[in-house]
Amino acid sequence: MFGGSDIGVDLGTANVLVFVKGKGIVLQEPSVVAIDRDSGRVIAVGSEARRMLGRTPGNIIAIRPLRDGVIADYDVTEKMLRYFMSKADGGRKFFFRPRIMVCIPSGVTGVEERAVRQAAIQAGAKEAHLIEEPLAAALGAGLDISQPSGSMIVDIGGGTTDIAVLSLGGIVCSKSLRVGGDKIDEAIVRYIRREYSLAIGERTGEELKIEVGTAYLPGSEDKSIEIRGRDMLTGLPKGVRVTRRQVHDAIKETLEMIVSAVKEVLEKTAPELSADIVNKGIVMTGGGALLDGIDRLISKETGLSVYVADDPLSCVAKGTGKALSNMNVISAAANRAKGQKKRTNSTY
Q: Is residue 266 helix, strand or coil?
């Protein structure tokens, strides 16, 4: 039982990770909920619900309550969060309500912040604190951001990409894009529809990205994969073979948006911090960092060294846990950086 322990939650568009103080990451599941359309009853959450995406009968809907890094369906998000917190505690009710630290994209509005905080309280938290994703990602990646020295982080999640330069425990300048792994999947789905007149689902688009997707073609091994979907001309099932080059063509425009945002943050960075970044390089976190060649692409476009963090998927969740242990330091840094950030931060 948590017994009043601190919990860090990476409330992601694609996955939810729960970090419990003293235990580490105890849960990692997809952010999907299956609901009975007639009664509103939750039928399944997480991995079980994800298997139902695109395969449910008329009275059941499998939905993702978070879109582009923010809450799209408040009630379902609260139910999902309550379920995951209970599951992380072995299915028991809380004896003491825990403190929770939830990560948010760096470009969210005040209304979106309040929605996340309120959902955490309604799900059973005694206190709900928020931390911006790039700060949590940097902490989870093991970067020492407490010193007066610049570090740069690029966190590519399911719904957002957060790019930030950090120093003295806070964000100096940042940019948040409502672009991430989901948009890359959608670009692949659109490409297959356009090129082959074949309708495929989100899961097949994601499978293509993982199996043969690449952000950087030079030096990449030529691969292909057969996929199946519905022929839009005949309405019948059909299979086609898709190559790595085709997937690259499909996602190229989305990747260019991410690279452009990285360059924009670098252009805003103070000369002293820029010198630090030249020495240290850029650290990448989030599920998007696992896309083949994305580190090489950003390195080529910026001329800087780029490193993918160890276990990039869990960095944000680990960082929320570390932040709870350093609340005073984080709060002081946030206040110190607030004025600077208002002048430099932007969101698409």
A: helix
CA-to-CA distance for 130 and 309, rounded, in angstroms?
A: 23
Check if the beta carbon of residue 347 is closer than 8 Å to that of residue 327.
no
How many other C-beta atoms are found inside a 10 Å radius of the C-beta of residue 136?
Answer: 31
The pair of structure tokens assigned to 217 is 């073609």
- pTM for this prediction: 0.87
Residue 344: pLDDT band with limits 50, 70, 90: very low
Tokens found for residue 263: 């360059």
What domains appear along the chain, each with residue ranges and CATH number? 6-132 (3.30.420.40), 134-179+260-347 (3.30.420.40), 181-250 (3.90.640.10)
CA 166 to CA 137: how far, in whole Å? 11
CA distances to 200, 246, 313 from 96, rounded to whole Å, are 46, 53, 29
Q: Which amino acid is at 181?
A: G
Interval 74-98: pLDDT, tens = 889 988 988 888 887 765 555 567 8
Three-state SS across 288-342? HHHCCCHHHHHHHHHCCCEEECCCHHHHHHHHHHHHHHCHHHHHHHHHHHHHHHH
The four Cα atoms 246, 188, 313, 336 give a dihedral, to 10 degrees, of 110
Residue 341 pLDDT > 80, yes or no?
no
Q: How many helices (H) and strands (E) does the chain have?
A: 11, 19
Do residues 333 and 172 make contact, with C-beta atoms less than 8 angstroms apart? no
Q: How far apart are CA 130 and CA 323, in angstroms?
A: 10
The CA-based diameter of the chain, rounded to the nearest angstrom, is: 63
Answer whether 123's CB lies under 8 Å from 151's CB. no
At residue 216, what are phi and psi to the nearest 5 degrees? -140, 110
What's the pLDDT band for 333 if we cut at 50, 70, 90? Answer: low
